[in-house]
Write a structure and sequence with these properties.
alpha+beta, TIM Barrel, 7-stranded antiparallel sheet, Immunoglobulin-like, 2 domains, 23 strands, 4-stranded parallel sheet
């Protein structure tokens, strides 16, 4: 009897290991629908072997934890959205979030045991987004979960678990500063830094658990952190760790890092822009703190910066809402359109309080952007403000495939002249009322070298010339 019990226990341990680290034990089947860099234009993504422009907005950061996730995804899908952000966060500041680890009777967590409710929610999100062809960009380490009040209740805090102490790890039990000061050495555990093996073991275990679910789905992009200020070694370690685990499972994944600095020219961003061997795409969300013409110019400088090694430039967070600190509703909507007209791969409205979320204005803009780009081949186009004359700063922006089609976006009405000299036939002009998501009647124009475009009124307009 004792021998049988021993054998059964051994089998259970082996089963547990294979459940947590399936990719280290055997190869997985490559998902049929897969997010990849678009072969014909690597500035964009493709999904299910078709080019895909990623547009989105959502109500929360740790979206997998919200109670009405399916309804929220349905709403996004209904307005043409196909892109969400999800932090692997569990602050429980809203009352419905749960932690990834099991909480014991003594009130502490055991980092060797999982809270199955957390992982059930994560698995459901992966499944439900895939069913709706929605691309999911996850952030492995939600930076602000490891500082201030959030760190006080975090399972990784040595005072909150039974697995290690502050003395054993050097981890602080209290961190009252902002993440930019980098005073939590939780982010210094990797071999190239302090090589804190005790902490790193549990960090790896957490990432392995994420991958045990996510690698089975082809609609996932991986971002290492949210607004991090730590050294490049941290993100580099985790990017390569995830890529290695995926490669062992014969799965290809795409990774990036999100730095805190608002200025994309800051040296902090060099780690992603200058290292395509580590990061296959670049998230430039922090540029969405900039306003007006400067917002456009900064992004265009980054496109030029990677011209010799083009990769998708993603915007998983677009700031700007009347209720927020980073601009108003107008700023948020303008940033959304400038990003897409600037040849960038994605645009998603940030959560309410810092962005427009998936409120009525966000819905109108996503719907109208999809209406416009659905009538043109945006993947053969590029920014062409050089074709506009009589233009004031931030008055109009042009995305075009000269000689074939042109789209011009007006943030607040106006009049510009468009060079259509390479068109061989008389063009058709169609105006789109962005906030009403309504096309005006098409007009056939004479074929001339210059075309005057005057908005029907003030407000948000786009025009398509083909």
């Amino acid at each position: 009897m004792g021998s049988c019990r021993t054998e059964l226990k051994l089998l259970l341990i082996v089963f547990a290991v294979l459940t947590v680290w399936p990719f280290s034990a055997r190869a997985m089947t490559e998902p049929k629908k897969k997010i990849e860099i678009y072969g014909k234009n690597p500035a964009y993504w493709q999904y299910n072997d078709k080019p895909a422009l990623l547009l989105g907005g959502s109500v929360d950061d740790s979206l997998f934890q919200i109670p009405d996730l399916q309804e929220h995804l349905d709403l996004l899908k209904s307005v043409g959205g196909n892109y969400i952000r999800n932090t692997m966060s569990s602050r429980n500041d809203k009352g419905f979030e749960v932690q990834p680890f099991k909480k014991l009777a003594n009130g502490k967590y055991d980092l060797n045991q999982w809270n199955e409710e957390y992982w059930k929610r994560f698995r459901n999100m992966l499944m439900w987004t895939q069913q709706r062809d929605i691309i999911l960009q996850i952030e492995i380490w939600a930076t602000f979960d490891y500082y201030r009040d959030n760190w006080a209740v975090n399972p990784f805090n040595p005072k909150n678990n039974i697995n290690y102490t502050a003395a054993q790890t050097g981890l602080p039990e209290q961190v009252n500063s902002h993440p930019v000061l980098r005073e939590n050495n939780f982010f210094w555990s990797v071999p190239a830094e302090r090589n804190q093996e005790t902490v790193l073991k549990f960090q790896q275990r957490f990432v392995d658990k994420i991958l045990s679910y996510s690698l089975k789905f082809g609609n996932v992009l991986y971002c290492m952190d949210n607004e991090t200020s730590v050294t490049p070694q941290w993100g580099s370690y985790w990017s390569q760790y995830i890529q290695a685990k995926a490669k062992a499972a014969r799965i290809r994944v795409h990774t990036t890092e999100m730095w805190d600095k608002w200025d994309l020219a800051d040296a902090m961003h060099n780690a992603t822009f200058d290292h395509p061997e580590i990061y296959s795409f670049v998230d430039i969300s922090q540029n969405n703190h900039q306003k007006g013409q400067q917002h456009w110019d900064n992004a265009q400088r980054q496109r030029e910066r990677i011209a010799d090694n083009v990769r998708p430039l993603n915007n998983v967070k677009i700031y700007g809402a009347d209720t927020g600190r980073f601009g108003n509703d107008r700023d948020g909507m303008e940033r959304f359109w400038r990003n897409i007209f600037g040849g960038l791969a994605s645009a998603r409205f940030h959560r309410p309080d810092s962005g427009l979320g998936l409120g009525t204005k966000a819905q109108a803009n996503i719907r109208s952007m999809r209406m416009l780009t659905g009538k043109m081949d945006v993947f053969t186009c590029a920014p062409h403000n050089n074709l506009l004359s009589n233009r004031k700063p931030n008055e109009a922006y042009c995305l075009a495939n000269p000689g074939s089609e042109y789209a011009v976006y007006f943030p607040n009405g106006g009049e510009v002249t468009l060079d259509i000299s390479t068109l061989k036939k008389p063009p058709e002009v169609r105006w789109l009322d962005i906030m009403k998501s309504r096309w005006l009647d098409a007009q056939r124009m004479e074929r001339k070298g210059k075309l005057t475009l005057q908005c029907p009124s003030q407000g948000y307009w786009a025009v398509l010339v083909q």
